[in-house]
Specification:
The protein has 146 residues and is of the alpha+beta class. It has one domain: Transcriptional regulator MraZ domain (Chemotaxis protein chec). The protein contains six helices and eight strands, in the order E-E-H-E-E-H-H-E-E-H-E-E-H-H. The longest helix has 13 residues, at 45-57. The chain is globular.
């Protein structure tokens, strides 16, 4: 399980150093793709396959389902992780997530999120440092057992 938040950056070759706590579970390869919140999601190969299988279950007759499939599948990139725990973030994905140098790596249970630092900070309440509208976002989640 991936948990925690880490401040890091990409180097001149656009490589991200995966936090040491995440490396063993992630292995030597992964899939990185656009998320829905202007961040990137890193999946283990197994988790990506599970996610892709769910995408395949969406009805092709539904225009919204086709757009969701395209959003994730067209942006997905297979990435290798070198012996130093680094992976290269493709340019299209860096641009989407507005990653320039500094970034935030967030464990999100079965996946890892990569945020450009400015984008991450724009999601935070300036006074408390908490995610904006977290309580509002939680409203309505009781249908999922929360």
């Amino acid at each position: 399980m991936f948990v925690g938040k880490y401040n890091n950056s990409i180097d001149d070759k656009y490589r991200l150093i995966i936090p040491a706590k995440f490396r063993e579970e992630l292995g030597s390869s992964c899939v990185v793709a656009k998320s829905l919140d202007r961040c990137l999601t890193i999946y283990t190969v197994d988790e990506w396959q599970k996610f892709a299988d769910k995408l395949d279950e969406l009805p092709m007759s539904n225009p919204a389902a086709r757009k969701v499939k395209r959003h994730f599948s067209s942006s997905a990139a297979d990435c290798d992780i070198d012996k130093q725990g680094r992976m290269t973030i493709p340019q299209e994905l860096r641009e989407y997530a507005r990653i320039e140098k500094d970034l935030i790596t967030v464990g999100s249970n079965k996946v890892i999120e990569i945020w450009g630092k400015e984008q991450w900070n724009s999601e935070l309440d300036p006074e408390s440092g908490d995610m904006l509208d977290a309580s509002k976002a939680a409203e309505g989640l009781e249908i999922y057992g929360f």
